[in-house]
């Protein structure tokens, strides 16, 4: 059984992935995330009729995303992994947002809203998700406009949807339902990563912060 933890943004949640399928809770986080995550885990375990001792792997969103949210999720995941003596893996938010759209025939541009006028942007294909860059949304839009058949997705795409439309660029935008990473996807990607490369080092795994270039 894999526990997926998502706390990179204002909306997060918990998922349990097992041979019986996926049990998932999606909750608003805000500033109360530190208290919600443990309660959400207990609630989901109860709903799934499972116990902590049945968890074999923890997968957690490492970002990019909210500074506080990422630290809350990682701290909880590390503490739980240590107490249960089980492995843990980190999953990038851009991977979790892009993966459900791997069927798209062109490239997928993931925009995660940073703050004000900036987004974290990464290109995704069915095979891989590139590294993120922090860009003003207009600069990011110019890059997306150069790529034919691109699909724009993520919280940044939702935040700047009106501005993108007003710019007169014919760019396909995924619906808001795909804008945020689901904890079940964190669990699935974490399990796949663990099978191919093993666990991350608990002492070394850190939030995946991306900084603006000078």
Protein described:
The protein is α/β, with parallel strands linked by helices and about 210 residues long. It folds into two domains: about 1-90 and about 180-195, Nucleotidyltransferase, domain 5 (2-Layer Sandwich), CATH 3.30.420.40; about 95-180, eRF1 domain 2 (Nucleotidyltransferase, domain 5, 2-Layer Sandwich). It is built from seven helices and ten strands. The chain has helices at about 35-45, 65-85, 95-100, 135-145, 155-160, 160-165, 185-195; strands at about 1-5, 10-20, 20-30, 55-65, 90, 110-115, 120-125, 135, 150-155, 170-175. Helix 1 packs across helix 2. The longest helix has 18 residues, at about 65-85. The radius of gyration is 17 Å and the shape is elongated. The protein starts with a strand and ends in a 17-residue tail after the last helix. The model has no long low-confidence stretch (mean pLDDT about 90).
Please sum up the structure shown:
With 214 residues, the protein is an alpha/beta fold. It has two domains: 109 residues, Nucleotidyltransferase, domain 5 (2-Layer Sandwich), CATH 3.30.420.40; 84 residues, Nucleotidyltransferase, domain 5, CATH 3.30.420. The protein has seven helices and ten strands.
């Amino acid at each position: 059984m894999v526990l997926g933890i998502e706390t990179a943004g204002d909306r997060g949640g918990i998922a349990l992935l097992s041979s019986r399928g996926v049990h998932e809770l999606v909750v608003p986080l805000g500033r109360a995330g530190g208290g919600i995550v443990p309660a959400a885990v207990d609630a989901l375990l109860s709903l799934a009729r499972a116990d902590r001792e049945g968890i074999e792997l923890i997968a957690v969103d490492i970002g990019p995303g909210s500074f506080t949210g990422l630290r809350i999720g990682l701290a909880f995941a590390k503490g739980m992994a240590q107490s249960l003596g089980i492995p843990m893996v980190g999953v990038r938010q851009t991977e979790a947002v892009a993966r459900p759209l791997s069927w798209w025939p062109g490239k997928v541009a993931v925009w995660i809203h940073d703050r004000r006028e900036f987004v974290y942007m990464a290109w995704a294909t069915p095979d891989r998700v590139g590294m993120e860059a922090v860009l003003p949304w207009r600069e990011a839009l110019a890059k997306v406009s150069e790529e034919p058949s691109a699909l724009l997705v993520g919280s940044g795409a939702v935040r700047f949807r009106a501005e993108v439309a007003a710019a007169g660029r014919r760019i396909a935008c995924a619906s808001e339902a795909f804008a945020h990473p689901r904890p079940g996807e964190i669990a699935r990607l974490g399990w796949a990563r663990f099978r191919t490369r093993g666990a991350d080092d608990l002492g070394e795994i850190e939030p995946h912060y991306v900084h603006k270039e000078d």
